[in-house]
Design brief:
69% helix, mainly alpha
Amino acid sequence: MDEITKIKQLLAEGIVMSSNVDNPTLSEHRTLEYCELAQKKLKEAGTIVHQLTPDLNDMIQFAIEYVPEQHRNKINHAWSGIGEWRA
């Protein structure tokens, strides 16, 4: 699996999980472990993006291209502290 595919997969999984935390339908969605795993997936995606292109403007452009607008706030918080990214 190439890096872009892996990033997109991590973003998709993390966003779905974060949405489940916001609107839980299962008891698992209310656990700290589930919430932390969602954040971990989003942060891992950001770390890979940073490894590919560490420039902050490039990271922002990547997020704009690959993350639906309604979920960018989640990415902003998850990626805070990666390189120059600050929430």
